[in-house]
Amino acid sequence: MDTLTRMRAFIDVVEAEGFSAAARKIGRSKALLSKYVRELEDELGALLLNRTTRQFSLTETGHAYYKRASELVREIDSLAETVRESSGDVKGRIKLTAPRTFGDAAIGRSLVDFAKAHPDITLEIHLDDRFVDLVEEGFDLAIRITRLADSSMIARRLSPFQIRICGSPELLARVGTPTQPAELAKLPCIIDTNGRWLSNWPFRRDNGEMTSVAVSGPIEVNSPLTTRAAACAGLGFAPLPDFIAAPALESGELVSVLDDYVPRDGGIYAVYPHRRYLPAKIRLFVDFLAQWFKENERG
């Protein structure tokens, strides 16, 4: 049995968080995976996993080994895929993470359309609003909606993105339409605790400098969709991603205000770690998304 096979078994167990889960996921027996990991530990002369009948955890050595082993295995797989690419045989699995907002919105359709167009590639999609460490957690790719600043990653901008400050026509009739950001401090606002802004909303002054306005209101919620629903109900002004706000803006349920003061330097990005060999499946996926967003441009 070669070291690479044992290494893959160890990685599978760690990423599935247990031998039983890993066995179900990859279609091998729990006993076989346990044997491979034990042989790997014997080969290394070090304990990688603490395991009992009820608990499973990495040792300090196991944690360090997993991180490096994952990188090596991905490089090996990427090299093989680069060679296979010339034959047009692009297949495999892409493990990606994206915000729940992305998956729940209309633009989440891009992932479904890719899976339909490329049945030989399996998408393992994890919708999670936390900031995921791609290398540490073994992800191939992330979709991020942000102002990107992480230089340790390779990023491709798929689409522009901005926040829209929205209120219902009923709200505007009741409290008036704000013409300056500072007015929001005295008006009801809906706080999306899932976003980066929280209760301090950033705006750009007429001279280009940035400022922030402390806001408050009747509801705080960690969901852009619920934030939109609350805004449509007239509970207050809400900061909404443009792709979440779009249907309500088009229907007239919401009106966008203060557009000239909201920062416009955000984007939707495909982000992946620096690698010597970029897997063909990742290149294919990112190219597909870029074209999808181009064909489905939002106004």
Describe the structure.
- With 299 residues, the chain is of the alpha/beta class.
- It contains 10 helices and 14 strands.
- Strands 4-3-5-14-6 form a 5-stranded mixed β-sheet. Strands 12-7-13 form a 3-stranded antiparallel β-sheet.
- α1 crosses α2, α1 (3-16) packs across α4 and α2 (19-26) crosses α3 (30-44).
- The longest helix is centred in the N-terminal third of the chain and has 26 residues, at 60-85.
- The protein is elongated.
- The termini are far apart.
Count the DSSP helices. Answer: 10
SSE string, helix = H, strand = E? HHHEEHEHHEEEEHEEEEHEHEEH
Q: Report the strand count.
A: 14
Unreliable runs, pLDDT <50, ≥5 residues?
none
- What structural category do the secondary elements indicate? alpha/beta
Helix content: 25-40%
Q: Give the terminus-to-terminus CA distance.
A: 57 Å
Radius of gyration: 24 Å
Q: Strand content of the residues, in percent? A: 25-35%
List keywords for this structure.
alpha/beta, 3-stranded antiparallel sheet, 10 helices, elongated
What is shown here, in short?
With 299 residues, this protein is an alpha/beta fold. The protein is built from ten helices and 14 strands.
Strand-helix topology:
Layout (H helix, E strand, L loop, with lengths): L2 H14 L2 H8 L3 H15 L4 E3 L4 E3 L1 H26 L6 E7 L1 H5 L4 H9 L3 E7 L13 E6 L6 E9 L1 E5 L1 H7 L12 E5 L7 E5 L5 E5 L1 E6 L2 H9 L5 E4 H10 L3 E3 L8 E8 L6 H16 L4
